[in-house]
Amino acid sequence: MQYARRRASPAGRLFGCIHRGHRLHADSVCGRTAKCNPRCGVLFCRVGNPTFQYAEDTSRWRSWQHEYRYGGFYIFPPHGVIEDVDALRLRYDPLSARACQAHVSLSEPVPRALEQSDVDELRELLAAVEPFMITYDQVHATLPYAGVVYRIRPVEDFQRLRDLVHTASAFGGSSFPRASIPPHMTIAEFISAERSVEVEAELRGQIREGEWMCEDIEYAIPDNKMTFHRVFRLPLGRYAPA
């Protein structure tokens, strides 16, 4: 989840957040089914014909969180990468680590509930995008805003994918206020600006950098507790009919 940047308060501000929550395995390729704990307030069914139960009780959400009711599209690192980044998040920002799994925010928040036609349209759009290599490197503080992130490259390929997703009907009439935020993968966010500088100094040149092949994007939505769940994947470069 990618939030509009704000100047840092003592506690910092979120850059992005997806909760590890109950691990779901539904995806658009295999069409498997999955359910999360019903106490979360979200249930998922077959992705080939997706239906979602969005959060019903948002009374405890903060005002800025309501924009995320219908989730968004993200790029998640694969196994072999995500574990190391999650470990860093746990070390440097336990609050985020407990609430979020490492990710790269791709889209703006989806402004309305998705329908089957939206999923089909996105699947067709993404068939024209070839998978590409993502590099994560140059850990840095995001001053003047609080946070420490990996740089994500290539920016051009990421931006083309982002722009294409935003042409979908699901984003019709939307504005895109986060367009100027560079692609990144967050390590710490609920920290002060001063602590951000310290963490950058500790990590620069000391932690793993690398790359992975981006082969799909994922849709994630929050439950009643503002816990995000990975719901389904849409592949790049091939059309997978429902």
- Profile the largest sheet: 4 strands, antiparallel
> Which fold name fills CATH's third level, the topology?
Cyclic Phosphodiesterase, Chain: A
Q: How many strands appear in the DSSP assignment?
A: 8
How much beta, percentage-wise? 15-25%
* H/E element sequence: EHHEHEEHEHEEE
**Sequence of strands across the biggest β-sheet:** 2-1-7-8
CATH class: Alpha Beta
Which term fits the overall shape? globular
- CATH homologous superfamily placement: Cyclic phosphodiesterase
Number of helices: 5
What would your notes on this structure say?
- This protein has 242 residues and is of the alpha+beta class.
- The chain has one domain: Cyclic Phosphodiesterase, Chain: A, CATH 3.90.1140.
- The chain is 21% helix and 19% strand.
- The chain is built from 5 helices and 8 strands.
- The strands form 2 sheets. The chain has a 4-stranded antiparallel beta sheet with strand order 2-1-7-8. Strands 5-4-3-6 form a 4-stranded antiparallel beta sheet.
- A hairpin with a 5-residue loop joins strand 7 and strand 8.
- The longest helix has 12 residues, at 155-166.
- It is globular.
